[in-house]
Amino acid sequence: MKTNIGVFFGGRSTEHEISVISASQAMHAIDREKYDVTPIYITKQGHWYTGDALLDVKNYRNIPELLKQCQEVYMRPVYDDYNLYRGTKKMFGSDVLTKLDVVIPVLHGSNVEDGIFEGVLQTIGIPYAGCDVLSSANGMDKITMKMILQANDVPVVDYVWFTDNEWGNRRDEVVDRIEKRLGYPVIVKPANLGSSVGIGSAHNREQLIEKINEAERYSMRMIVEHLVEDLQEINCSVLGDCDDYRMSVLEEPIKSGDFLTYDQKYLGGGKGSKGMQSAQKRIPAELPKEETERIQYLAGETFRVLSCHGVSRVDVIVDRNTRKVYVNEINTIPGSLSFYLWEATGLPFDKLMDTLVKLALKRKRQQSLKTVSYDQNIFSLGGGGVKGAKGTKA
Ligand SMILES: Nc1ncnc2c1ncn2[C@@H]1O[C@H](COP(=O)(O)OP(=O)(O)O)[C@@H](O)[C@H]1O
Ligand SMILES: [Mg+2]
């Protein structure tokens, strides 16, 4: 029997479409001699579907038509139940459609890449590839991520953060804090989105207020950072777990304008676009050896101190005037799973998928060695045991 890999993608996220592309690439790369693949598409409404029609990206042009060819499915939040159940009960026979052995989430953005979906998998106990709940959540939130990096001597640009509530009630105080700490220019971001959604730069107070009002539409937490005006962006992928990880060659995305927009990143600016791959990039980035090694080291440190797992991509900003390197963000489920960086590093895509499965199984083995509960039932102790239980939870 082959190992059955459940690949989850789509989701209630602004990066839904990008996830469809990433997952399609990943599913085609999996070695079918060794593995079976069950695609599980999460719609924008949050419903799960499976079916072979999900394997062809062209079918997503007409979602209602696509879903007609698919079967709605679900998993139960029950530990050790790896079954995929039919959404509509059959009159006769089993409701179990198939059983998954391991899950590879290829989901981008909030509600999915931020630990929420990982929590479902963790509840079920099924081995899965990639970051766990803690590292996904920390990696997605641009504020907690920067706090953790700072505390571990990984350089990040200076920032100020606040909530939408503070912005609503104490706007002057927030503006004051930003102007005192950072001055202008700054860049305003919702704390937990991706793909440049809701991001804008500001060179004065009027623009600042406008950009924060824009960012606030997307998130309850906002971050304003010092804007590095003359910057070079470099990305590095990291693969493994905290104990044993390696870094890819570097890429330099080529941008036009202020910063990479959603369209530039994924739509390639229009005609003839092939999605993410058409976005222009230089691989490997042309940098002096010491600078390359420094960036790879910082990418590895970012992965390590955030306790990441699987394949991530760490994006850094280099200030062209000072050549100082700042870690900008980590993508714990990067677009295209960064396969093009691993290919350039000598690891083919099918081997990357294979590595992810092995890492998932390794973590499951390690986790199962930990004690999660005591077999002793304190209620069975009798006497004062049960009565005295209240308040003894120390
Ligand atoms: N501090 C900064 N200074 C200058 N440009 C920045 C800064 N932070 C982000 N950018 C630009 O904005 C883009 C999007 O920001 P990023 O933090 O990567 O958010 P996202 O999660 O949406 O990708 C980056 O790719 C970069 O071009
Ligand atoms: Mg980014």
Overview of this protein structure:
The chain has 394 residues and is α+β, with helices and mostly antiparallel strands. The protein is 32% helix and 24% strand. The protein is built from 13 helices and 16 strands. The termini are far apart.
Give me a quick take on this structure.
The protein contains 13 helices and 16 strands.
Write out the strand line-up for the largest beta sheet, numbering strands in chain order: 6-5-4-3-2-1-7
Q: Helices and strands, in N-to-C order?
A: EHEEHEEEEHHHEHHEEHEEEHEHEEHHH
Biggest sheet architecture: 7 strands, mixed
Task: Give the CATH class of the largest domain.
Answer: Alpha Beta
Percentage of residues in helical conformation:
25-40%
The coarse silhouette is globular
Number of strand segments: 16
The class by helix and strand makeup works out as: alpha+beta
Calculate the mean pLDDT score and round it: 90
What would you say the CATH architecture of the largest domain is? 3-Layer(aba) Sandwich
Through-space gap between termini: 47 Å
CATH topology term of the largest domain: Rossmann fold
Bound molecules: adenosine-5'-diphosphate, magnesium ion
Which strand-content bin applies to the residues?
A: 15-25%
Keywords:
binds adenosine-5'-diphosphate, alpha+beta, 394 residues, binds magnesium ion, D-amino Acid Aminotransferase, Chain A, domain 1, Dna Ligase, domain 1, Rossmann fold, 3 domains, 16 strands
Write the layout of secondary structure elements.
Blueprint: E1 3-10, H1 16-29, E2 35-42, E3 48-50, H2 63-68, E4 71-74, E5 83-86, E6 96-99, E7 102-106, H3 116-124, H4 133-140, H5 142-151, E8 159-163, H6 164-169, H7 171-181, E9 186-190, E10 200-202, H8 205-215, E11 221-226, E12 231-241, E13 244-253, H9 262-267, E14 281-282, H10 289-305, E15 309-319, E16 325-331, H11 339-345, H12 349-367, H13 384-387
Parallel strand pairs: 1-2, 1-7
Antiparallel strand pairs: 2-3, 3-4, 4-5, 5-6, 8-11, 9-10, 9-11, 12-13, 12-15, 13-14, 15-16
